[in-house]
Amino acid sequence: MTIGFETWAKDGAARRGRLTLAHGTIETPAFMPVGTAATVKAMRPESVAETGAEILLGNTYHLMLRPTAERIAELGGLHRFMNWNKPILTDSGGFQVMSLAGRRKLDKDGVTFQSHIDGSKHRLTPERSIEIQHLLGSDITMAFDECTPHPATHEQAADSMRLSMKWAARSKEAFTDRPGHTLFGIVQGSVYDDLRRESVEALTGIGFEGYAVGGLAVGEGQEEMFRVLEATTPHLPDDAPRYLMGVGKPGDLVGAVTRGIDMFDCVLPSRSGRTGQAQTRRGPVNLRNARHAADPRPLDADCACPACTGYSRAYLHHLQKADEILGPMLLTWHNLHYYQELMAGLRGAVEAGTLADFAAAFAEQQAAGDIPAL
Ligand SMILES: [Zn+2]
Q1: Cis bond leading into 241, ω under 30°?
Q2: Which of 14, 31, 114, 178 has the fewest CB within 10 Å, making it most exposed?
Q3: Who contacts 42 (Cβ-Cβ below 8 Å, separation ≥6)?
Q4: What's the pTM value of the predicted model, to 2 decimals?
């Protein structure tokens, strides 16, 4: 093992643990804010850390195009480049390249694609993806895979998953072992239980220190996603961290932790913060709505973030309507703070053995909705 992962409490399938990487430790279950282009949009990295985040996600696709992985390596690596000294996980670039419909060509060795920035031609293979993530200096490197589109027939999903398993073996081969740095494999197989099983067997055969569940939150719906998790996580090794990629809404996090997931990433808290939507314990609140225009109350009286302690709903509404930069800044901070609070609550509940009560109280508060208008 080049990284450390220990779990010391369980509640059903949920686990409470700690992951130790080159740049620090992560309490699990954990949520990773997304720093697409070497920045969590509208936040200074110091502020992201203040929300309680212990690890960020960076995007290989965006960074390889601009400013390039080689430039970042020359400047001391991604941690130094963006002034974030805690762990970083990078994706493989596969997901974003595959979603460049009409601008990419898949073959058995990799993908050739055109940049969305200037149309220039690029190529990603398992070996190149791993090399880029090495240049960036990621604590956690992700294997290069094809995210199977949804919906897919059994045959399409099988072909896609088996290609990803070949690429997973090549990713492992290309990965350079360094203390505190690791490579995660990615389970694919769409919504088919037998394919998810086959994928888990292929990956555990290759041997990884962590396992991601990919190809979910692509339009299958929450119920189906939970069903696939129930068919997948019980087969994953107990002693390795499990990461559900690209998920999700607060309710998705609660449900997936209950089903044995340890790590998440999602653009939702930061992206929705930039469009005026706050994620709260009482569900989503749209600050652009006229009902907040004269409301002197805080967004959430029980939230300790700067947006809730210093400002009124009326002010947050005004910033959104006037397109002021401070609006996205404050709401992104609140949303990231709320996500970290939710994860801390989940960790406490798993440790106390009260996860079912926590999940019930969470669902009840979400269903009750926002405080009544004045
Ligand atoms: Zn707040």
Answers
A1: no
A2: 178
A3: 270, 273, 274, 325, 328, 329, 332
A4: 0.98
Compute CA distances 157 → 96, 113, 164, whole Å.
Answer: 18, 22, 10
Token code pair at residue 229: 């998790």
Q: Quickly count: other Cβ atoms within 10 Å of residue 76's Cβ.
A: 10
Residue 266 is labelled as binding a ligand: no
Report how far ligand 1's centroid is from the alpha carbon of 139 (Å).
30
Please determine, for residue 372, whether its predicted confidence score (pLDDT) is greater than 80: yes
Is 145 marked as binding a ligand? yes
Is 92 annotated as belonging to a binding site? yes
251-287 pLDDT, tens digit per residue, is 999 999 999 999 999 999 999 999 999 999 999 999 9
Of 180, 89, 198, 103, nearest to 142 by C-alpha is: 89
Any known ligand binding at 366?
no
Could you list which residues have their CB under 5 Å from ion ligand 1?
Answer: 303, 305, 307-308, 334
pLDDT of residue 118: 95
Tens digit of each residue's pLDDT (9 = 90 or more) over 104-122: 999 999 999 999 999 999 9
Burial of 14: CB neighbours in 10 Å, binned 0-12, 13-18, 19+: buried
pLDDT band at 101 (very low <50, low <70, confident <90, very high): confident
Catalytic residue among 11, 252, 262, 265: 265
Q: How far is the CA of 26 from the centre of ligand 1 (A)?
A: 23
On the question of pLDDT at 342 being above 90, the answer is yes
What is the Å distance from ligand 1's center to 302 Cα? 8
Residue type, 173: E
To the question of whether residue 295 is assigned a binding role by annotation, the answer is no
Measured CA distances, 73 to 68, 78, 144, 331 (Å): 9, 7, 20, 32
Q: In order of start, what are the domains of the chain with their CATH numbers?
A: 4-266 (3.20.20.105), 273-368 (no CATH)
